[in-house]
Amino acid sequence: MFYKFGSNIFLVVFAVYVITLTVPYGYAEMGLDPSWNLGINMLISQGKIFGQDVAFTYGPLGFLNYRVLPEHHFSIYVFLLFDLVFVALSTWFVAQVIRRAGKLWYFFAGLFVYLFYPEGVFSDRVFSLLIYEIALILYAYYHRKAWPLVVAAAIATILVFIKVNVLFLASPYLWMALGIMAIQKRLKASLLAGVLILNLAGIGILSHVLKVDLPQYVANSIPLTNSYMDAMAMFQLYLKEFALLLSLEAALWLVLVWMIWQSRVYIREHIFVYFSGFLLLFLSFKQCHVGIGFGGYRSFLSFFPLPVLLIYTYSPESLSRLWFRTWIGIFLIQWVGILYTGYGVSDRSWSKYLDSRPIPHMNLLYYWMPFTWYDFDKNFEAKQMRLPDSTLKVIGSGTVDVLQHDLAYVFFNRLNYGGRPVIQSYTAYSPELIRLNGDYYWGPKAPDWVLFKLETYRNQNPFWMDSEVNWALMRRYDWRQQVVVKGDTLQMFGRRESSKKLKFNSVKLGRLELGKRIQLPRSPRVLLQVDARLNLWGRMMRLILQPPYLYVRLHYVDGQDRRYRVIEPILRTGVWAGVRVETQDDLRRFYLSEGEDNVPLEWMEFSSNVPGAWE
Question: Fewer CB within 10 Å of terminal CB in the chain, N or C?
């Protein structure tokens, strides 16, 4: 029984290995993703209500995924608790696999050491927790145990408040599993009902504790989830890079499908585990193909083995040798893919990739000691993005919002944050979310001051985002000054006592016509709405892979052309298309002259990479 002793020793070493690879916490940084984390944290510190005051892709516990602590309401040891739970679940998951492997446990032990170093499941703890929840439910299903369901219910409850797109999967999957187990009489109905009550009560209690308006939180989550892929879809690879990664992906799927075909006689008996495994694989596949790039493929390749391991864990012993061969194939393909994507995310440099690899130190003190010297004020020691003293004096204690993305300006200058519900403009990608921000700027809680840094996002026209906020800014605010901070240029606006009376031309096109030159009224303020909709073929592409890309060519009277990608839900809501606004100078000129001094648009033309995908 030496292999059992050896595997138990490995599990202890593995737990230490995982915790020592974990970064205990981080401090505030500049950038697109760090800014939303700071925005969420500032709203938590202000006691804002998620659902009412906040509508974003992450919830009030989103900071657990990005490891920067809010100023109030949470202790730094919340990260320690979260990490201990995560390590315990990871070790339990590994234990199920290596015990299933028996005398071949050493192969899977090596596989897990590799999978957890250095990114692996750390690249997205939310998805890892979802995998662990499903693994616990499957364990309860096969072993007829109640305790895994209790742990799974706790995970499902927590996930509701970390990331909103998991909201529609974590708890509904649990409810479905409870129903299946009740029908098949796997456990007592009273136990299953107790788990359901625990989950629902936990969601209710945490909604109160974390200040979440649950009905509105769920309502906001629908457009945030539904339109996510429309706005976030991108392609960031050269064709030869994509061809190589697509070949590796196809090879992985072929190996897995071949294995499933070999074990097809067992599928009916184990349909629940096959369904669960392929559900997780599909979610990972979708996330990878929303943003086709080295990062997306790296995440997909890192997570691909975990759902497959779920299927393997509950496969018959008679298939062990066949599964071992399958795993050799999957491991080799995935290893090549991880190396190549690591090179890609390191600016296509092998030297940078090798230099970025952490060395496991296996010393728990390296993980523990940072908790003893945490200091929130260290966030401000570098004095990043410091606004001029004259600007800070003008702002005073007034509320401040930042357009379009860089909320770090508010945080690092310790300003009074008065952010709109959808805290970054690139996330206002549906009619409901655009109107939510517009209503805020027209309402009594609108910020006293606005710092506006115009910047494009994934090749979109920078001034076509948050169109209703832009209209409110035209009428309710005055341009006050231009601010330059370390090469960044921002325009500062102050709220007026009364709104200006402005007119605009509204142009509504009932149907998208590709390849046709469209001339708009010669006016500085033209709100263009186009009823752009995908047909059945386009919707199928959107579901399975990526939505078709819609582009617009803008030709201005000075002879210059611009080509941008257009997000169809944004286009249906309305965009300001009469004049050119794409630089900080254009932005300042637009608000000072109400668009009169900007270069007018002469004509525009829509096109698509898949012309047959549109109604």
Answer: N
Distance CA 434, CA 439 (A): 9
| Residue 556: pLDDT over 80 | yes
Which of 524, 529, 526 has the alpha carbon at shortest distance from 508? 529
Mean pLDDT across 19-40: 86
Question: Would the CA dihedral through 538, 541, 542, 546 be positive or negative?
Answer: negative
Helix/strand/coil for 489: strand
pLDDT of residue 193 exceeding 90, the answer is yes
- Per-residue model confidence (pLDDT) at position 216: 93
Confidence bin at 31 (pLDDT 50/70/90): confident
- What stretches of 204-283 adopt beta strand conformation (E)? 234-235
Residue 601 contacts residue 556 (beta carbons within 8 Å): yes
Give the mean pLDDT of the chain: 88
How many residues can be counted in the chain?
615
Query: Residues 120, 125, 129, 131: what is their CA dihedral angle, to the nearest 10 degrees?
Result: -40
Mean pLDDT, residues 296-307 = 84
For 308-365, the three-class secondary structure string (H helix, E strand, C coil) is HHHHHHCCCHHHHHHHHHHHHHHHHHHHHHHHHHHHHHCCCCHHHHHHCCCCCCCCHH
Greatest Cα-to-Cα distance within the chain, rounded to the nearest angstrom: 84
Tokens of 569: 């839900």
Tokens of 381: 């020691």
Q: Read off the pLDDT of each residue in 293-308 and give the average, rounded to a whole number.
A: 84
Nearest by Cα to 600 from 572, 566, 559 = 559
pTM for the model stands at: 0.90
Identify the pLDDT of residue 224. Answer: 83
Say how many CA atoms lie within 13 Å of 453 toward its Cβ. 20
Residue 436's pLDDT is 92
Per-residue three-class SS string for 12-50: HHHHHHHHHHCCCCECCCCCHHHHHHHHHHHHHHCCCCE
